[in-house]
Amino acid sequence: MLLLSFHENLHLVLALLALTAGSAGVAIADVTIDACVAQNSISHPSLAADMQSLCAFSSSVGALLGFSVSGIFVHLIGPMGVFGLLTIPAGLVILVGFLLDEPRMQNFSYRQVNQNFVDASKAMWTTLKSENVWRPCLYMYLSLALSLNILEGMFYWYTDSKDGPSFSQESVGFIFSISSIGSLLGAILYQYALKDYAFRDLLFWTQLLYGLSGMFDLILVLRLNLKFGIPDYVFVVFVESIGQMTIRLKWMPMLVLSSKLCPSGIEGTFFALLMSIDNVGLLSSSWAGGFVLHVLKITRTKFDNIWLAILIRNILRITPLCMLFLVPRVDPNSFVLLPKESEDSKVDMEASETKNVELISLVHSVDDNI
């Protein structure tokens, strides 16, 4: 971020490398915390939803603060100055890393790293072959990939003076900051009202609500809100708030389910793998959304077919409902995979559990090595 803020004419390749390095740093810190949450979710399964709700609450508060000041700082000090300011949260993350208490491993041999990697890879592959794992992973990917991301087109429409409401950049940032309250409300609603519902039932209603909420964008671009006397600014804030709330409600059960799919001993590695699958889904959504915008010839100044892009997006948002059979209908407070047994417990190997024997032995071997 400092490199971007100091060099005005930085080469495009170097700028992309700097942004990639910054994103990698954020991803590493995020996965580290996710690993802690996944590990504690296995140790305390009844608190898995609570921990994910706490993470979502913290993320929503951060988004609220970030969106609130982003437009103001871009106007006051410009984009390069904002890149410089981004070093402050990076420094705070480094500080948290120093303060995070973690026991050191004594007499650790770095020669075991390769063997640990091989053992962990075997355990991950064995876990992924389980129907309880690959089926919900496939649903997560498809659910995210089919939700086309056309935010770039909507942003330019927001700021267009001819066809759109002609919002300033500061106004758009402020709108997104207010809509972050919707994400905050979604996390609170999940924590206090929805966390005990079965994954499949909750995903059905949240996905349906997510698809229907997208119709508000269609009302907006067709300017129907003005016919009912609702100002653009008020309606956009309402639309974005509802959208952020439904996204959060849709995302929360996926996070809880992902934390329960992680085998004991390689929680961080496996959770990172699951999150990478989700990130590929988001990337696919952005590519597909950009392709749709390109095909419909929607540009920074031309928005004749933006209503059609919204309609296609909303229809695709509903399609994951046909694939809900991939998600297990289980109690969110129970395990999807068997946890690591305590030393004084006995493993009851019944006929219905024989398919998990190989997984348990591999995971335990990884635990012994790590």
Q: What do you see in this structure?
A:
By secondary structure, the protein is mainly α. Helix content is 71%, strand content 0%. α5 (112-128) packs antiparallel against α15 (357-369), α6 (131-145) packs parallel to α13 and α9 (199-213) packs antiparallel against α12. The chain is globular, with a radius of gyration of 23 Å. Residues 338-370 have low confidence and may be disordered.
Number of helices: 15
Portion in beta strands: under 5%
Give the overall shape. globular
Q: Cα distance, first to last residue?
A: 35 Å
Mean pLDDT: 79
Strand-pairing-aware structural class: mainly alpha
Provide the succession of SSEs: HHHHHHHHHHHHHHH
Which helices and strands appear, and what pairs or packs with what?
Layout: H1 2-6, H2 12-43, H3 48-85, H4 87-99, H5 112-128, H6 131-145, H7 151-158, H8 169-194, H9 199-213, H10 215-221, H11 224-227, H12 232-260, H13 267-295, H14 306-318, H15 357-369
Helix pairs in contact: 2-3, 2-12, 2-13, 3-8, 3-12, 5-15, 6-13, 8-12, 9-12, 9-14, 10-14
Kindly list the characteristics that best describe this protein.
single chain, 370 residues, mainly alpha, 71% helix
Give the structure's gist in a few sentences:
Helix content is 71%, strand content 0%. With 370 residues, it is mainly alpha-helical.
